[in-house]
Structure formats: structure tokens, C-alpha cells
Amino acid sequence: MALALRSREAERLSARSGSLFLLVKALNRFFAAIMKVLIVYAHPEPSSFNGSMKDLAVKVLTSQGHDVQVSDLYAIGWNPVTGPHDFTGGRSDPDRLSIAREQTHAMEHGTIAPEIKAEQDKLLQADFLILQFPIWWFGPPAILKGWFDRVFARGFAYHTGRKYDTGMFKNKLAMVATTTGTSAQTYAPDGIDGSLLTVLWPIHNGLLRYAGFDVLAPFVAHMPGKIGEAGRAEQLASYERRLETLGDTPRLYFHPAEDYGADERLKPGVLARSGVQRNVW
Ligand SMILES: Cc1cc2nc3c(=O)[nH]c(=O)nc-3n(C[C@H](O)[C@H](O)[C@H](O)COP(=O)(O)OP(=O)(O)OC[C@H]3O[C@@H](n4cnc5c(N)ncnc54)[C@H](O)[C@@H]3O)c2cc1C
User: Is the CB of 260 under 6 A from ligand 1?
Assistant: First the structure.
């Protein structure tokens, strides 16, 4: 009898703490800033694991009230190759093609190709950018690299005096969500593939931080093709948890401008902390 009472009491308390938990969750959502999210997704197969991660992100972030937009690069037939076709008006120099100069000119004159402008507009509106792609040859698929080349144009994503701390996309947030063909161990700092942060440095630092973004730690699903159904389900559950706890996700460390000397090297005495740079004194 006493045991039954105790268990009813426990049920009552657990139901109460359950509803309290739901209330706290709802309040968190209410008070969390509603973001405009852009997911740039680069995989040719909709039923791929990357496709599932993208679909999951749309579902979870939308359910949190965020406004989510996807650029599905294969679906829109994105042309990754930059060239004279990127510039629809008169060129700054019709005789010799300098992509950076023509990008600046086209941004100033509103003559950048319409498909680039459409992507730039999405980026301008976004508070949070997710890059969803598989690691191919230690980098993003060419279609995504070509999106960087054409969309992150000079005069739009960077300019004289506008890089890193003073980057054009200051106060915006970005995150890489990616998959690999090999294990986390191979991507350990002493692993055969080398640290994944080193592999992703061109994107984290060379693209996102260069353009001013704050960058969250990447979400990496290691070798989804080789870990079985249960392993894949756990990876998706883990990605869902990440998406639900973005506010608690650490940001990658990048040295601030004052850590560098006039030669743009870390000043003597500044301990390299980015995870990729190292001191040479
Ligand atoms: C050109 C090229 C270069 C590469 N270079 C590298 C490299 O440098 N480094 C490296 O580590 N790897 C490399 N790889 C491997 C590549 O990174 C992996 O194959 C890729 O990351 C796996 O992701 P995916 O989305 O393609 O997986 P998929 O093969 O599409 O999916 C894996 C499995 O997940 C299943 N799945 C999909 N959705 C779900 C779901 N919702 N629930 C449960 N299961 C699901 C699929 O059916 C499939 O069985 C390379 C591959 C290519 C093609």
C-alpha cells in the first residue's frame, strides 16, 4: 500500500516536472531570437545522409519559429564556374578579365549576374548560415566551392579594410554541417587525415571569418555510410540536439586584430589559440 502511494506520488511529481520541462522549453523558444536561416546544401542525391541532415535542420529550426530558406545547389543547377558571364553590364576592363576587379565594378553598378544576386540577397537577409556538404577531397564539393567564388564577391563579401573583425557580415553566425568517409580518429590532430579543424580552416577562416561571421563549432557526422542504421539514427539525434542547443554551442576562436602586428603575424608573446595557427618563436 505504502509502496503504491509512493509510486503514485512519484508519477504525479514526474508528470509535474514533465510539464514544467515543457513549459521551460516553450518559454526558451519564445524568448530565443527568431532567426532568418539560410542552409546552403550541396549534395546531388536527395536521399543522401546530407539530404537527411538538411531536411532535419529545416524541420527542427522551423519548429522553433525560425524562418528557414534552402539553397539546394544541385536542384537549382548552380553553375560553379566563374567567368565573364558573371558580369552583365559593361566591364571595368573589357580587354583583360580580373575577376576581383569586375566583381567590385559589378557590385557598384548593380550588374552582377542575376543568379549571383539572388544568392547574395538570401545571404544578406540571413542571420545564420548553415553550409551542409560532404567532405570531398578534403574540401567542399566543387559546386559549393563555386558558390563561394561567385557569391562571396569582392564589393559584397569583402572590400578594402573590410575583413575579419571588420568583415561585411559582422554579427552574423555560421556553421558547417558535414559528413566524412572516415572515422573521427583519422581526423584527430595526430590521425592520418589530420585535424578536421585544419581541413575546414579554409572555410572557417578563409571564407566565413574573413567575411566577418562568428563561426560555431562544426557538426560532423563521421562515415555515415559505414556505421549501420543505429549509428546513423544516433548521428541524426545528435544533430537534432545540436540544432536545439545552438545558443550553448561554442564558437570557434579566432584571434582579434589587436593580436597581430603590422606584418599581420601574431605579435611576439601572443599564444596561438585558433587550433590551426602555431607560434614559431
Ligand atoms: C569525390 C569524393 C571525394 C571524397 N573525398 C573524401 C575525403 O577527402 N575525406 C573523406 O573523409 N571522405 C571523402 N569522401 C567520402 C564522403 O565524404 C562520404 O561518402 C560522404 O561524406 C557520406 O555522406 P553522404 O551524404 O554522401 O552519405 P550517403 O552515402 O548518401 O548515405 C550514407 C547512408 O545513410 C543512409 N541514410 C540517408 N538518410 C538517412 C536517414 N534519414 N536515416 C538513416 N539512414 C539514412 C543512406 O541510405 C546511406 O546508406 C569522398 C567521396 C567522394 C564521392
Answer: no
